[in-house]
Amino acid sequence: MKNKYAIILILVVCKLYAQEFLPIHSQYLLGNYFLINPAVAGINTTHKVRFTYRNQWIGESAAPNTLTASYQGRVNRYIGMGGYVFKDSNGNHNTTGLEIATAYHINLGTNNKYERFWSFGLAFSGKHNGLDLDRTGGDPSLVNFDQDFDFGFNLGTYFIYENYYGGLAMSQTLVNNILTTQNKTTYSLIMGHLRSINNNDTFFVEPSIFIRKIEGLDIEMDVNTKFYHKPLLTKYSIWYGGSYKSFINNGLNGTSFTMFAGIDYKNFNFGYSIDFDLNTDFAGFYNSHQFILGINLFEKRYASLGCSPLNF
Length: 312
Known about the structure:
Layout lengths: L1 H19 L26 E10 L8 E10 L4 E12 L2 E18 L4 E17 L16 E14 L2 E8 L1 H7 L6 E8 L1 E2 L6 E12 L4 E11 L6 E14 L2 E14 L2 E10 L10 E10 L15
């Protein structure tokens, strides 16, 4: 009996976590900004395909893990398209989701080195919250445990002004306002600055901040620093950095630190990150590994993009 109640409690917690904290959001540290803002679809000069694997609670059996596959690219001078699918497994609970996005990009002009863009994005998203009955031992009390399909529309805007960038996204906004579902609107804000720190533009630093607020619930803030090194006359570049996360979850404060690094070689991209929990309120919660593998295809230059933050 105690085991059954324990399973139900875990499932309720996982259900809330799956609804309000899509685990794909942390992947922006490895360069996949599209996952947090649909307006990024097609803002690059290439079509980008990315595969990501994330494993949380290192050392724990049945620990949460997430698989994600995404694509985004420019269709023509003004229109971008993209989408992603993900599967998040957390013990007996699993969530499968997708998003399909389109974006419109307005070129505000360029100077000799930088670009200026303002973009708007709209996306349809949906996710299925399920239960692995095989792992529950066939408990009949869990057969009808709230397996459902949630959907919504996400809005976003994004700007690049020379070597500054920023964006605001709102997820499930239209569903909340029109259909009055129980899902909460999530607001995501990111702002950053890319700056060369040597004379021949081979070494760059990118400080940024990311804030996410769930309507009526939790808030988190990331303070990030990322470095790029692009040696002259080579076919590769390396990037690395760190992120300090502070969050409030159900009235409890938590902090974590992330280290990440990656390499781009020709059209291929590989990155890795590891998270460390810095307090005991969520002991082990943010200890995780994350890997990203990507390929860039069909490069087209619709503007003199130069040293854009999203070209790194």
